[in-house]
Specification:
With about 200 residues, the protein is of the alpha/beta class. It is about 40% helix and about 25% strand. The chain is elongated, with a radius of gyration of 19 Å.
Length: about 200
């Protein structure tokens, strides 16, 4: 995306969305998602392909439009540019990148439930970079690719898309050798605070 051409495309997108959102304001989630997400993603595709969108409603009734690079680091700059050009719209908040889930959560990976409060990690810091080994029971029984896929979604939910991509160089998922042998390991639920302390 050329900067000048891109700025024009972004302005066009927001002009379209500002008019289009009136059809969303009367709806509720998940009606909003079903009816409008595909259209919004298609319009964003005119700026950059591969972007993703989430719609949600806060407790105070404000609708949140999250624009995501879908974990692709090369698209981070364009996401930031799109969000920075967003106009003020009453009752709306525009957010760059998927945000951390604040409440406890779990994710299903086959017949395995991934719950950060039951997992551990070992940080490896080298030349300013951070690698993470995540340990859990029954990891050795899972398909490696499937475990890596759902494991990264779990970490994305735990620390947010931006930190998941920019703060950790490499992730690995390994069987916990012995559930009693957790000395030196850190509960995975503490990863957000560990990341913040390194910044």
């Amino acid at each position: 995306m050329k900067d000048q051409a891109g700025a024009g495309l972004i302005s066009e997108f927001w002009a379209w969305f500002d008019a289009y959102r009136s059809g969303i304001d009367g709806g509720t989630i998940p009606q909003v998602e079903e009816q409008h997400l595909e259209e919004i993603v298609e319009r964003l595709g005119g700026i950059e392909s591969g972007l993703a969108v989430e719609l949600s409603v806060r407790e105070d009734g404000v609708k949140e439009l999250t624009i995501s690079a879908d974990g692709v680091r090369d698209n981070f700059a364009v996401v930031e540019q799109i969000v920075s050009q967003a106009p003020w719209m009453e009752g709306w908040a525009i957010i760059a990148f998927r945000q951390p889930i604040k409440a406890d959560f779990s994710l299903q990976c086959g017949d395995l439930e991934l719950n950060p409060s039951e997992l551990y990690f070992h940080p490896i810091e080298e030349d300013g970079a951070l690698d993470i080994i995540v340990y859990g029971q029954r990891f050795g029984e899972q398909d490696e690719n499937e475990l890596s896929y759902y494991g990264l979604i779990m970490i994305d939910n735990l620390i947010g898309e931006y930190d998941c991509v920019t703060q950790v160089r490499h992730y690995d998922f390994q069987e916990l050798p012995d559930e009693q042998e957790t000395e030196g390991l850190v509960p995975l639920s503490e990863l957000p605070s560990f990341i913040e302390a390194r910044k």
